[in-house]
Amino acid sequence: MTQPTEPDKGPVKSTPDEPWPVRVVSQKIGAWIAKLGWVWVDGQVAQISRRPGSGVVFLTLRDPSADLSLTVTAHRDVLDAGAPELAEGARVTLHAKPEFYPNRGTLSLRADEIRQVGLGELLARLEKLKRLLAAEGLFARERKRRLPFLPGKIGLITGKGSAAERDVLMNARRRWPAVEFRVLHALVQGPGAVPQIIDALKVLDHDDTVDVIVIARGGGSVEDLLPFSDEALCRAVFGARTPVVSAIGHETDTPLLDYVADLRASTPTDAAKRIVPDLADELRLMEHARARLDRAVLGMIDRERQRIEAWRSRPVLARPESLIDQRAAEVTALRDRAGRSFEHRVRRADDDLRHTVARLRALSPAATLQRGYAIVQRPDGHVVRAADEVAAGDLLRIRLADGELQAAVKES
């Protein structure tokens, strides 16, 4: 069954049994492209072709940030009116309509107005992009990573055979002869620079042996350094895992890459000095550190020696037996004192005893008996003091100074 058709558009739907002819597909592609209408396009001129005797000029318009390009056709009068001095590498803004050519199966832009972007406008665009990236935090100082003290391998992205490459390699190896590099060459200006630099950055960023990446280029005009202010390149550097050093142009050149990179070097030579230490300086620092360490150790030993000597000069260490002698003298003195005190106490006690004995003897009846007196007692021990205390026939006991007598009372 035949599919319904639209005027001049062929079948509405294609099937395996009734496929569309090539002309129908080409017509539909042309129709869809024509729906885009007139648009303003920004790009970089990669090639200009002015054919003698022809009123049409062919341009190759390239995207600065990607490996993409489109063909642009314009009348010579349009180009002369809008950009008479147009050269390859220039940035342009053009008003064009996309057209599909079925015979060749190609797409191109037909421009009716071309404007070359001047330096002032380029700088204004860069300033606007700078504010945008800063607001997103791509320039934040706290996200910048510290470079390793001595990288095992350095990745270098630069132009092939450029002075920047020689400066980085020569100065880095002069400072540290054993340094290793992995060099990837890329365009550093022109329409194809940004895609090649981004591709090289991805390769080095995925190499686990690379510890730091240097993007280097010598000096140039503002237009020559535009690739290093490209938004796509800035975002690629921001997203890299490996620390990135920007060494673009001279000290006064400040592309946006300088703000995004982890370290900004004023020149490629300065980058070599920043990424590797100077072997001679490090050896000199090591000698100074070792000398300081020697002085510190010797000073510590001298202080400890003096402290030990001070300890040894103390009497307790100089003559340790003096402490024992002192204690022995104290013990002897205490012992003598105790002896004297005991002897004094004994003498005093002896004197007290003799005095007591003398008093006892003076008061004792025995002393009276010594003088011839006697003590008369009855058998029960009662001292007889009067004659009427006894009766005739009582037995008495007479105590003398020396011995006793037994007596009986004859008469009372």
From TrEMBL:
Subcellular location: Cytoplasm
A Gene Ontology cellular-component term: exodeoxyribonuclease VII complex
Annotated keywords: Cytoplasm, Exonuclease, Hydrolase, Nuclease
Residue ranges of every copy of the Exonuclease VII large subunit C-terminal domain listed in the record: 138-353
UniProt domain OB-fold nucleic acid binding: residue ranges: 21-115
Highest taxon of the lineage: Bacteria
Annotated GO biological process: DNA catabolic process
Protein's UniProt keywords contain Secreted: no
Chief localisation class: cytoplasm
UniProt-listed CDD domains: ExoVII_LU_OBF
InterPro entries: Exonuc_VII_L, Exonuc_VII_lsu_C, OB-fold_nuc-bd_dom
Listed EC numbers: 3.1.11.6
Reaction catalyzed: Exonucleolytic cleavage in either 5'- to 3'- or 3'- to 5'-direction to yield nucleoside 5'-phosphates
Record-linked Pfam families: Exonuc_VII_L, tRNA_anti_2
GO MF, one annotated term: exodeoxyribonuclease VII activity
NCBIfam families linked to this entry: xseA
Record HAMAP family: Exonuc_7_L
Role played: Bidirectionally degrades single-stranded DNA into large acid-insoluble oligonucleotides, which are then degraded further into small acid-soluble oligonucleotides.
Quaternary structure and interacting proteins, as annotated: Heterooligomer composed of large and small subunits.
Sequence similarity: Belongs to the XseA family.
Name this polypeptide is given: Exodeoxyribonuclease 7 large subunit
Primary gene name: xseA
